[in-house]
Amino acid sequence: MTSHDEPLPELEWSEPAPPRASVSAAIKQTAGRDLDKGRGLVAWQRAVLSVVVSGGVVGALIALGLVQKQEAATLRATTLGAAGWGVVHLAVLLAGLARPPGKRGSRELRWGVALGLPLVFFVYLALSAHSALPLSRFLQEDTHAPTCGLFTLMFGAAAAGGTLLVWRRTDPLTPGLSGALAGLCGGLAAAAGIGVACPSHEAWHLWLAHGTTVLVFVGVGWVVGRKWLAP
Amino acid sequence: MWPHSVELSASGEASLVTRWLAAGAVVNDTPLRAATLEELMERYVDGDSGAFDLLYQRSSPKLFGYLLRLTRNRERAEDLLQVTFAKVHRARGSYLRGAPVLPWFIAIARRSFLDERRSAKVRTEDLSPDGTLPEPKGEGGELGNDVTEALERALGSLPEAYREAIVLTKITGLSLAEASEVLGATPTALKLRVHRGYAQLRERLEEFKRR
């Protein structure tokens, strides 16, 4: 340890002269306006709303799967998968967004979740795939993938956008990261839900048309969150 | 809740009601004066302007000191203080119960500062040729004595990253974890900035002693 690593003895920092009285008066006047407006939603109410938004998206996609008369066994398996990811979604929501800013755990851990969970989701998709075509054949044969990807993005936009709106202005400390987690929640809801509605269970299709949505919305959430989640 | 006209006089001085509250009157079973910043924020969010007066009284010196050391310009710091509290007022409904208030305010103040600097493109006339902010003008007289003034000048001449790290942890009193959240750095990186900043401060103060 060099001498430069040692802390300096406590230094006496001066308290600056306060702001002018007119500045304080203007601030107090502003703060006195609309005080009867009342508080917004508390954390648990926002969490419930977020679950309703994501649940609505997954519910719509399950209904779509039922309408399309998927095989009962497949429908059951994919619905169970969606329910499992629903639990993960809830955990992310409660730990990453519902706790007050400053008490949400380390930034590194939360980034690890935001970037690691999409990768875990890719592994889940690989394990739940029924077949895997060579990439070149998939690109030639799977004409359904772009439409399916677009659908997933649309549902993801609804879920992620809704979640971001619900948590608007709640995080001055790490708005981008919290936005990424909100995007992760929305992306997971859409990608897990589309698994129920989509008849294809080919690995490349699952990865490209379903799984990439999660990554896309983590990125979108990060960008949008910096604007929307900061007061 | 008290009518606004009763709470604040035109000059911004605390009204009788506010002074009575600040002197230890009881609201919601706990004396306001004994309330933490977080409890005061809760009451302010619930519409208690007396709580805001105390909240302002307790948080503004630290917030203003932070902004003053960031901008090194009293008028800009005052403007930013107003912007910060206006944003706090607008966003009070989304304050999540239990969130530490001072880091919440400081993060808003810092963002306001960065937004203002970005939109003004760091007014070129304020910059020294190497692109950094020059030494503050006209602030020396308010600092008290030579040592304090030298300390503030030395702090002002540090690179912004070091200066901010020192201001937040050593002067404003945020914990390493809170300050690293505000600055978007890891606690280890922040600790390093504080140490390096202190090393530079030491060198500059020794120069001052030799003079």
Structure report:
The complex is a heterodimer of chains A (231) and B (211). Chain A is mainly alpha-helical and 231 residues long. Chain A is built from eight helices and no strands. Chain A starts with 20 loop residues before the first helix and ends with a helix. Helices cover 64% and strands 2% of the residues of chain B. Chain B has helices spanning 4-7, 16-22, 37-45, 49-71, 74-91, 101-120, 146-156, 160-171, 176-183, 187-210, and strands at residues 26-27, 30-31. Classes of the chains: A mainly alpha (231), B mainly alpha (211).
Brief rundown of the structure:
Chain A is mainly alpha-helical and 231 residues long. Chain A contains eight helices and no strands. Chain A has helices spanning 21-31, 43-67, 72-98, 107-128, 135-141, 145-166, 175-197, 203-228.
* Helix count from the secondary structure assignment of chain A: 8
Helix content range of chain A: over 70%
Determine the structural class of chain A based on helices, strands and strand pairing. Answer: mainly alpha
| CA gyration radius of chain A, whole angstroms | 23 Å
Tell me, what is the CATH class of the largest domain in chain B? Mainly Alpha
Shape of chain B: elongated
Summarize model confidence as the mean pLDDT of chain A. 90
How is the secondary structure organized here?
The complex is a heterodimer of chains A (231) and B (211).
Chain A: H1 21-31, H2 43-67, H3 72-98, H4 107-128, H5 135-141, H6 145-166, H7 175-197, H8 203-228
Helix pairs in contact in A: 2-3, 2-6, 2-7, 3-7, 4-7, 4-8, 6-7, 6-8, 7-8
Chain B: H1 4-7, H2 16-22, E1 26-27, E2 30-31, H3 37-45, H4 49-71, H5 74-91, H6 101-120, H7 146-156, H8 160-171, H9 176-183, H10 187-210
Antiparallel strand pairs in B: 1-2
